[in-house]
Structure formats: structure tokens, C-alpha cells
């Protein structure tokens, strides 16, 4: 979910905007500390990079840390999406097979 949020947000993604995007997409409250913990793990795996922006007076002179998805992160999203699609196709085909089996057997017993 977090990688998808980074894809949607693009270059201006930082902790607060990422949390807001996740809340908007899921309809659930997101704890900012969990966002940063996840970003750190994703960065260790090479799926996300970060950089410091300029310091601003409204942040007490502190800089925002901006996050971007890497090429490896984009591949991870694509591979996961394909995996989910493959599983849903298997479930769909199994459902059709079950439907045909029930329909065929119902016709035999009527």
C-alpha cells in the first residue's frame, strides 16, 4: 500500500502526505510512526530512496525528508499486482468449474 501511495504522490511525498494518502485510500487512521518505520524498511530493501529538502522557518529550521520509489520498488508493485491478478484468475476459473459441475449434476438429477 505504501509503495502505491508513493507512486500516486510522486516527487512531493513526505511522511505526512504519505500518511494522508494512505488514510484517504483505506478509510482508516494511520499512525505516522508506522509510516516512517515502513519507509525505513523499504529503504533498506532498496525499494525507496529519500532525500532532505530545504529547511523551512515554519518547521523550526528542520528540513522535510522526501521519499521516492525506486525502479526496484516499481518492479515490486508490478510483480505483486501480477501475482494478485494470477491468483484471482485461478479463483475465478475454479469458481466457473464448480458452477459448471453443480449445473451439470443438477441437470442429471432432475
Outline the structure in words.
By secondary structure, the chain is an alpha+beta fold. The chain has one domain: Arc Repressor Mutant, subunit A (Orthogonal Bundle), CATH 1.10.10.10. The chain has helices at residues 2-9, 15-26, 32-44, 71-108, and strands spanning 48-55, 63-69. The chain has a two-stranded antiparallel sheet. Strand 1 (48-55) and strand 2 form a beta hairpin. The termini are far apart.
Helices and strands in order:
Blueprint: H1 2-9, H2 15-26, H3 32-44, E1 48-55, E2 63-69, H4 71-108
Antiparallel strand pairs: 1-2
Fill in the keyword field for this structure.
110 residues, Arc Repressor Mutant, subunit A, alpha+beta, 14% strand
Helix content: 55-70%
Structural class: alpha+beta
* Backbone shape: globular
Query: What number is the mean pLDDT?
Result: 80
Q: What is the CATH level 1 assignment?
A: Mainly Alpha
Low-confidence stretches: none
The CATH homologous superfamily is called Winged helix-like DNA-binding domain superfamily/Winged helix DNA-binding domain
What is the compact description of this entry?
65% of the residues lie in helices and 14% in strands. The protein is an alpha+beta fold.
Amino acid at each position: 500500500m505504501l509503495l502505491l501511495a508513493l507512486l500516486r504522490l510522486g516527487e512531493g511525498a513526505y511522511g505526512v502526505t504519505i500518511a494522508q494518502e494512505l488514510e484517504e485510500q483505506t478509510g482508516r487512521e494511520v499512525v505516522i510512526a508506522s509510516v516512517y518505520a515502513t519507509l525505513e524498511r523499504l529503504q533498506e530493501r532498496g525499494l525507496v530512496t529519500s532525500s532532505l529538502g530545504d529547511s523551512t522557518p515554519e518547521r523550526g529550521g528542520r528540513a522535510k525528508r522526501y521519499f521516492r520509489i525506486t525502479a526496484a520498488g516499481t518492479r515490486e508493485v508490478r510483480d505483486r499486482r501480477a501475482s494478485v491478478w494470477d491468483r484471482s484468475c485461478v479463483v475465478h476459473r475454479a469458481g466457473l468449474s464448480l458452477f459448471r459441475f453443480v449445473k451439470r449434476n443438477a441437470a442429471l438429477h432432475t
